[in-house]
Write a structure and sequence with these properties.
By secondary structure, the protein is mostly helical. The chain is built from 20 helices and no strands.
Length: 505
């Protein structure tokens, strides 16, 4: 039996509940007896930690600009420039894969707690980076090491936080679930990105450019506050109901069956995420540098950061509007529609770059570039995490999501290294018109490719897809002779009389 990769329609029972392709009614976990706050705060606690991803990955772009101004060629001619900006992505991949396993085989809650503590510790250590004897090389080596370990904590937020957030939305009102998942995952990342330029801008104005060493340390140190604010809420969390019902932590996961059922879908989701992060994170990190080039050498640093803040602010309209659109037309349609439009705007921007790269036209550059970013957020930015969290069974969702997200961060890692190379090898070099155009040509072509992947190969995702996916996965396992009564927590298994019946009415 092969899984369907695409279903444009989802049937419903007379009562309005989803019916899976085997004809079984899937029981939603929505609990109307709970207050709205009781059903909502687990979604907030699980997902909002991704604010740290947006802030800590974004702020390093501004720190990179400050370090170049402070240390000149001693910094720019060393490998440290690339390492400082990109090493957190490597740590994030390690964290995603590690915590993906932990969240499936042990606990969603305690995986979240561990990643939160790592974020607090290493955000603080990054801000306090110091080289032996005050050496620049030692300082940069320390900052690189702490950024890698910080990345592990950021990575833990994806499979532990986002997956638990998606499962917790099952208790919310049908028709509103996608928007709340997005509001407390991708919108949080975007809010963090905005503050990652706003905070350094304010600090430069307060401290002046005579005290940039203080500015970059305080900018990194601000990253301690978001995970610290979530620590208490996360300590109060319980495991999601879906996890209690479907976990395989008390048995051996049948990986051969899992791979046969999900390999193609996982490959498609992972490739789309790779392409999106290849462009999104690279553009985010180097946007300040491009704006500085457009403004000219005589422009003050705070103005460069201020324009960067305005650019990042364009993420939010797309992300917030996309959250509602995802509920109205479905994540798959939203993804391929907006990423296609993003590709079209990217080609337009590449064509007009020769006009837009003038200081007098910086406002036009920011607006068109902002629309480009906003469309990306409404499409893959909002929906790729939603797709990854809802297109697999609960039992292996943490690892499935972790692999897809790790591919995304691998794309970000590759992009941060390749973008300067693309610009440097362009006819005329980095500061030429082609140096600005070529990244947009590459990114826009990849956008159109992503749209085709989503249109032809992603499945339809409804409001109860998590529950119906669990039913399909159980049916598949049983058809291969695997006893699904082994699934669920020990307490849940004690109440289970049969396998598939535990998720049917």
């Amino acid at each position: 039996m092969k899984p369907s990769l695409r279903r444009d329609e989802e049937e419903t029972s007379p009562a309005g509940d989803s019916i899976d392709e085997y004809g079984h009614d899937a029981v939603p976990v929505e609990n109307p007896k709970k207050s709205r706050w009781d059903r909502s705060w687990p979604v907030i606690a699980c997902g909002a930690g991704l604010f740290s991803d947006g802030y800590l990955n974004g702020v390093i772009g501004q720190v990179n600009t400050i370090l170049k101004q402070l240390y000149g060629t001693a910094y720019t001619s060393s490998p440290a420039q690339s390492n400082v900006t990109a090493i957190a992505f490597a740590g994030t991949v390690v964290g995603q894969l590690l915590f993906g396993y932990v969240s499936d085989h042990y606990s969603r809650k305690w995986a979240l707690m561990a990643s939160t503590i790592i974020l607090i510790i290493f955000a603080a250590l990054s801000a306090g980076s110091y080289g032996a004897g005050g050496s620049l090389g030692g300082l940069l080596a320390a900052l690189t090491a702490w950024r890698f370990l910080l990345g592990i904590g950021i990575g833990g937020e994806y499979p532990a936080g986002s997956v638990a957030c998606a499962e917790s939305t099952g208790e919310l009102k049908s028709g509103h679930r996608n928007r709340w998942f997005i509001m407390f995952t991708n919108v949080q990342i975007d809010a963090g990105s905005i503050l990652s330029t706003l905070v350094p801008m304010i600090l430069v104005l307060i401290c002046t450019e005579d005290h940039l060493r203080l500015v970059w340390r305080l900018s990194l140190g601000f990253g301690v506050i978001p995970p610290l604010s979530l620590l208490y809420l996360r300590l109060k969390l319980d495991e999601p109901e879906e996890f209690k019902r479907e976990t395989m932590k008390n048995t051996k996961t049948p990986w051969s069956l899992v791979l046969k059922f999900y390999w193609l879908r996982l490959a498609v989701v992972s490739l789309i995420w790779f392409i999106y992060d290849f462009s999104a994170y690279s553009f985010s990190i180097y946007s300040t540098q491009w704006i500085s080039i457009i403004l000219g050498d005589d422009s003050s640093l705070w103005k460069s950061f201020g324009w960067g803040t305005l650019v990042n602010a364009f993420y939010l309209p797309g992300a917030i509007a996309g959250a509602f659109i995802s509920d109205w037309i479905g994540p798959r349609r939203a993804l391929y529609t907006f990423v296609f439009l993003q590709g079209c705007v990217g080609f337009l921007m590449a064509g007009l770059y020769g006009i837009l790269d003038k200081p007098a036209n910086v406002a036009g550059f920011v607006v068109i570039y902002g629309v480009f970013l906003s469309l990306g957020e409404a499409g893959p930015g909002d929906n790729i995490g939603l797709v990854a969290s809802k297109t697999s069974a609960t039992a292996i969702r943490g690892q499935y999501y972790a692999i897809a997200a790790a591919c995304g961060k691998l794309g970000a890692f590759v992009g941060t290294y390749l973008f300067p190379i693309i610009q440097k090898n362009a006819p005329g070099g980095t500061d030429s018109v082609r140096g600005g155009q070529d990244p947009f040509f590459v990114s826009s072509s990849l956008c159109l490719f992503s749209a085709a992947l989503a249109y032809f190969l992603l499945p339809h995702i409804g409001q109860d897809t998590i529950t119906t996916e669990d039913v399909k996965f159980r049916e598949y396992l049983e058809s291969k002779g695997w006893d699904t009564r082994q699934m669920g927590s020990k307490e849940y298994r004690a109440r289970s009389e049969s396998s598939v019946d535990v998720v049917k009415k």
